[in-house]
Amino acid sequence: MNFELSEEQALMRESFARFLDEESSTARVRAAMPLGFDAKMWRQFAELGALSLRVPEAAGGLGLSLLDAALLMEEAGRTLICGPLAETLVAARLLALLGAQDKLLSRVLAGEAVVGIALHDIEQQPLQWIAGGAVAEAVIARRADEVVLVAVGPEDRRAEENLASTPLAEIALSRLSATSLGRGAEAVARFTQAVEEWKLLIGAGLAGIGREALRLAAAYASQRKQFGQFIGQFQAISHPLADLLCEIDGGKFLVWRAIRNIADGAPEAGAAVSIAAWWNAEAAARAVAQALHTFGGYGLTTEYDIFLYNLRAKAWPLVWGDPQRLLEEAGRRLYGGETTTLPEAGACPIEFDLGDDARAITAEINAFFEQNVTPEMREKFHYSWEGYNPELHRKLAEAKLLFPGLPKEMGGRGLAPYAKIAAMDAFEHQGYNTPAANVAQMVALIIHRFGSEELKREVLTKLMSGEAIASLGYSEPGSGSDVFAAQCKATREADGSWRIDGTKMFTSGANLASYVLMLCRTNPDVPKHQGLTMFIVPLKAPGVTIQPVYTFQDERTNITFYDGVRVPDSWRLGEIDGGVRTMSASLELEHGGGFSKVMRAMLRAAEQLCGELRRDGRPLIEHVSAQCRLARATAHLWVADVLAFRAQWVIAEKKPNHAYGPMAKLFSSEKFLSDARDLLDLTAPHSLSKRKGPAGFLNQCYRHAQATTIYGGTSEVHRSMIAERALGLPRTRA
């Protein structure tokens, strides 16, 4: 897996960014209005080689990759470039590939001439809006099975006022003189590739616009005060920006993912292009609107630059038409058998593959389940603690598959980070979601690091062998997500032992476990996070009462009561009042998180059910509306995947981590819930049933999804973390 650009790409990006910061400043953007074309900047940009980026070296270009062009477009979007860059990149490449108009190509690459592209067949749509058409002297167009170069005179390219003050013009292309550039399948394929490339480049540019708009909003919210506080401290300001950062970053990575798909020849590559273009059009529009809203009334004035981002983000993709049609196109490509010709990707260092070790452990886990799991056992698999199977748990321990991520000196497999991720994915694929094993692993690691020899001998060995499991005693009835507000007391006795009194809520698995890892208040006279200590408490000890609490998700959790429960000091973990440090050890087991695995299973169930159900005499999956909704769920799944991949990658490679784990968890849980609602609607009334099969699974997913936005920290907690750590907004929690 790799999210790092090559050294050459990083240098190229930095070089273009420096130029654009200076020559495409918002002052220059304003000066170029209302035409929206900065001829001087355009020529200077061309001198840097920007316009020749995608032209093959044999034709006088740089011959760089599709990812290079996307990186350039991100910077162009960030700086609101005054010129039709995406259109010029694909038009110049098309001229070179069709092997004609060398003189014109040279002038285009020098920034002396602008050539646009008509995105639709002019035989079917003779009058078209052309990006850059107000300054173009020619337009490349498709006319049935022919690609032509349409000459555009000054009288044919009348500039007119438009939404974002870009050099847009509506041109009656079929009435103008045209020169053939090629005819037949090969020429049409080249043109189709150019249009598909344009979709990706516009998507990348929109991601750049959206990211910069959010940065401007966060900066403003960090210095603007209202009611004596920075407005960025108000969750009504910071939380929507956090949500949109997930969507904007996800959109950028959808472009990267589509390029990787093209490079790999993946069957979903065509749909990935459509989804990346649609997603970024939608996400950028929402991001700039929320950013402008952050400025309040000032955002409506022309004194602040945010309005420029608002208008460009909305205008750029609309030259193609209604972005909703891109979602329909994705639906046809995913579910209707539609195919297209895609551009050449070139070198792409971005990689989402986990490697050979990951494939090996996946195969081993799959083989284990095939040999050891009976149909009766599989029937009882469940995403919660209800799926815990003691026999299978012990067998996994014997095969050293129970804790594959723990180091070998503890008795684990000691897998490398990406193989460890693959192992977790393999368990999910088998349907054996194992919170019992995950919690036991966390507790085992903490005991290994902070426990006494007695704890290691009495408890750790049992956890590692699969003989026992443990529960977590963090939450309390009055503290919710604020675990540091714990009031469950541990009082030191005269003999050095500890007496524990209090209540813990959501002690899931306590009815099955032998031990609970408990966070207790040991000092009420210091700040709340300093007066906590961790203990291992036997759940069979006198004074422990376990009371079931049932959820509507077919699972049981517990409320546990501790009345004078005695534990020896040797069962304390870490220093007295040092519980926060002890708890932090569990963070090493973080893997980027998210719920993309169950989102994928839910989508597959919805696809199956849409294929079985009939509406108006034909399968539901053949209806445009159903294809669109399934395509939207696919987009959410892919964004959840790439955000989780990034979180996993920065942990594995020890890169700076700007709340990437919370972003993966927040986005996936919220979209899991919204998609569960929508797919339940789509397949109604059959989805009401709990009967075995896809309908019952969708039904379960809807109930399961509710908890994902709460367990492990509510979405509100994660939004605050993202706002603070990724956007630099002031702290919103006391």
TrEMBL record:
Domain of life the protein comes from: Bacteria
Entry keyword annotation includes Flavoprotein: yes
Domain Acyl-CoA dehydrogenase/oxidase N-terminal: 6-99, 356-467
Keyword Flavoprotein annotated: yes
Cofactor: FAD
Keywords: FAD, Flavoprotein
Entries under InterPro entries matching the protein: Acyl-CoA_Oxase/DH_mid-dom, Acyl-CoA_Oxase/DH_mid-dom_sf, AcylCo_DH-like_C, AcylCo_DH/oxidase_C, AcylCoA_DH/ox_N, AcylCoA_DH/ox_N_sf, AcylCoA_DH/oxidase_NM_dom_sf
Protein name, as recorded: Acyl-CoA dehydrogenase
Native source species: Sinimarinibacterium thermocellulolyticum
Lineage, top ranks: Bacteria, Pseudomonadati, Pseudomonadota, Gammaproteobacteria, Nevskiales
